[in-house]
Design brief:
elongated; Methionyl-tRNA Fmet Formyltransferase, Chain A, domain 2; alpha/beta; 2 domains; 232 residues
């Protein structure tokens, strides 16, 4: 009898929702891990999963776990282009209107494993809308992988590595002079648990959320707070 046990490990609310609404209803026995401390060799040994799926997982998976089951990650670029951090933001800031969700076998080298599937996804809208859209595509890819027993193939093409963005890079640059470019910058940072775009004005930090591009203007919600001094 083939192994029908599966694990999904994710920390983002849109992926957790997709698990409960779609993935958990797929054939087989499904277990959800939502924190790093849950993902232990002991837990995996007990469950004996065929696959462990990692949609939007923020941590390095230990080599020991990679050897215990077929671990599958999902990266939002057409690998090998766009290996590395902050894939959605890096694609938007480079002017791309769509990207590719790539399902890969996880190996010791980051984002370097062979590819199971690729699916195109639009980069229109706020970043949280994009992530919700991607979570639905990932759920569909998971079903396809378990149903067809797809074998991964080596990555092909020219490698380009993205650098993970830091919170300091969310400050709006004075070099942005185009309204559309500014809108892209604001919207690519508008998601839960992400550092929103901001500017500094004297002792104040002004953050922007829910941007909307209108005719010759951008409208957005604004949060203003005091910048904390080092001794505060």
């Amino acid at each position: 009898m083939s192994n029908k046990n599966y694990i999904v490990a994710t920390v983002r609310p849109w992926n957790i929702k997709a698990f409960h609404e779609k993935i958990s209803k797929y054939p087989g026995k499904w277990t959800l891990f939502t924190s790093k401390k849950e993902l232990t060799e002991k837990a995996i040994k007990k469950l004996k999963p065929k696959y462990i799926f990692f949609p939007h997982w923020n941590y390095i998976v230990p080599p020991g776990i990679l050897k215990m089951a077929e671990c599958i990650g999902f990266h939002e670029t057409p690998l090998p282009y766009g290996r590395g951090g902050s894939p959605v933001q890096n694609m938007i800031i480079r002017g791309h209107k769509e990207t590719t969700v790539t399902a890969i076998k996880m190996v010791d080298e980051l984002d370097a494993g062979p590819v199971y599937l690729k699916k195109t996804v639009s980069l229109e809208g706020l970043s949280e809308e994009i992530f919700v859209r991607i979570s639905g595509i990932v759920a569909d890819m998971i079903l396809e992988i378990i149903s067809k027993d797809i074998k991964p193939m080596p990555q092909k093409g020219k490698k380009e590595v993205f650098q993970r963005r830091t919170p300091a890079q969310s400050e709006v640059s004075t070099k942005i002079s185009d309204l559309n470019a500014l809108y892209d910058f604001l919207r690519m940072l508008d998601a839960e648990e992400y550092p929103r775009a901001f500017i500094k004005y004297g002792k104040f930090r002004i953050e922007f959320s829910r941007p909307a591009l209108r005719h010759n203007r951008i409208e957005a919600d604004v949060k203003i707070s005091l910048i904390k001094e080092p001794n505060d």
